[in-house]
Design brief:
432 residues, FAD/NAD(P)-binding domain, alpha/beta, 10 helices, five-stranded parallel sheet, four-stranded parallel sheet, globular, binds flavin-adenine dinucleotide
């Protein structure tokens, strides 16, 4: 796609048509207000090239043109998508199917650096990398996703983490957990734990239970899935998942609410709940509690519940540090706003639009945000939940637009087609 600034109007039309198809809802977002001057406006560093950061980098370049230098930094040389990663566990996708490179962003003019961000000096507006020289910025975006509080689960030390996997960041752990499932004998028990909300992707764990159950039903029918959920009930698409567990996977999935696992014994693959109940697994998958990515914490951006980063929802600017914008899962979510890739993508566009305005000396405007989360019940049949969020100036937060959004009536193959199209489209929206 040609990114010269003369094409900005066409780009916005393109965004509108993507939104009109209902796939991304990008049309819900207004564009930066006026034509941009060709002069240098500033240098923006983006830490984290996932759903939030990659989207922000792309749209900064796309809307900001040559006047804005955009540098995107990630420790990983390529992107592994968490959406669809449960299908790798189910066996209908491979890691290659959910891997995207950063070449498209480079072709758009984004400088992509592969390195670990060691620290950020917000006073001197400088990012310290592990291998590459320090980088200065006019505006900084921090989109590091989540990191895990392993300490909340006794026994889940560094050694235990080599065999008791979370696979809650897509990549090598996704492949390794799939291998554990393949190696498990027919008749074995897969035990997965879900932390108390909020965590990344509210429906994700229940989709995972369905994917593993689908694998067992078709390949190892005497095996079981036991879900130990720390929450009092299924946290998303409750009726749809309950039906799937009881009917499609009846006799395979057992779901236990209020089962908070606070300890494990990695050697015997035993999960122990806070009331002392012990459950032995053949494959143990522990999803630990989560908070904003460690670099946000080190930078002093974590200022809500000692876990998340508060932002101004008009600009995504941190309330803890000026000229620093925080996106995606790391933020303290607004009411009813899920921690999802789709939502992080919307955060990225909001921040990009705001930064283009701020660097151009104009006032950013509030944006609408949309969300759609698809869940695969088996390899073809899918359900979705959708919502639209608007800024409420009196409360300085985002709220669901009354009557917006929706929920599937039942799993169906047509939504399977939509779900695959959603993934392809959002990856393209982020990286091409
Ligand atoms: C199993 C599963 C299924 C899911 N399914 C869906 C779905 O169907 N739809 C949906 O919308 N969402 C889904 N999600 C949620 C979605 O993956 C997250 O909400 C999304 O990834 C959040 O985007 P982000 O930009 O905040 O973080 P990420 O996408 O995780 O990106 C963060 C990036 O920051 C980098 N990083 C962090 N710290 C540093 C550092 N110090 N130096 C350099 N790089 C760093 C990381 O390497 C990473 O690439 C799912 C999640 C899971 C686990």
């Amino acid at each position: 796609m040609n990114t010269s600034f003369g094409n900005r109007r066409r780009a916005l039309q393109w965004l509108g048509s993507a939104g009109a198809s209902g796939v991304l809802g990008a049309c819900a977002m207004s564009s930066p207000s006026s034509d941009l001057p060709a002069k240098k406006l500033g240098r923006v560093l983006v830490v984290g090239a996932g759903f939030g950061g990659a989207t922000a980098a792309k749209y900064l370049k796309y809307w900001g043109g040559p006047g804005i230098e955009v540098v995107l930094i990630d420790r990983s040389p390529q992107f592994y998508s968490c959406p669809l990663s449960n299908l790798v566990l189910g066996g209908s996708r491979t890691l290659a199917d959910i891997t995207v490179g950063y070449q498209g962003l480079r072709e758009l003019g984004v400088v992509v650096l592969t390195d670990e961000v060691a620290s950020i000096d917000t006073a001197r507006k400088k990012v310290v990398l592990t291998k590459i020289a320090d980088q200065s910025y006019d505006r900084l975006i921090v989109a590091p996703g989540v990191d895990f509080n392993f300490g909340a689960i006794q026994g889940l030390d560094a050694q235990a983490q080599t065999t008791v996997l979370h696979a809650w960041k897509a990549g090598q752990q996704t492949v390794d957990l799939r291998r554990q499932l393949e190696a498990m004998p027919n008749g074995g028990v897969f035990v997965m734990t879900i932390p108390q909300a909020p965590y990344r992707c509210p429906p994700g764990p229940y989709e995972r239970a369905c994917q593993v159950a689908h694998y067992f039903k078709t390949r190892k029918p005497r095996s079981k899935v036991l879900v130990l959920d720390a929450n009092p009930e299924i946290m998303s698409k409750k009726g749809l998942f309950t039906k799937a567990f009881n009917e499609q996977y009846g006799g395979i999935v057992e779901y236990r609410a209020n089962s908070n696992v606070t300890e494990i014994d990695a050697r015997s693959r035993t999960a122990i709940t806070e009331v002392g109940e012990r459950v032995r697994a053949d494959v143990l998958n522990v999803i630990p509690p989560q908070g904003a990515g460690e670099i946000a914490r080190k930078t002093g951006l974590v200022n809500a519940n000692n876990r998340w980063c508060q932002v101004d929802w008009v600009t995504m600017e941190s309330t803890a540090a000026p000229a620093v914008h925080v996106l995606g899962d790391a933020t303290l979510s607004a009411p009813a706003m899920p921690k999802s890739g789709h939502m992080a993508n919307q955060h990225g566009k909001t921040a990009a639009a705001a930064i283009v305005e701020l660097l151009g000396g104009r006032a950013p405007q509030p944006q609408m945000m949309t969300n759609t989360c698809y869940s695969f019940i088996d390899d073809k049949n899918v359900v979705h939940v959708a919502s639209v969020h608007r800024y409420v100036p009196e409360k300085k937060t985002m709220e669901i637009v009354p009557g917006s959004g929706g929920l599937s009536a039942a799993p169906n193959e047509l939504e399977g087609v939509y779900a695959n199209a959603w993934a392809q489209t959002i990856w393209r929206d982020m990286f091409a």
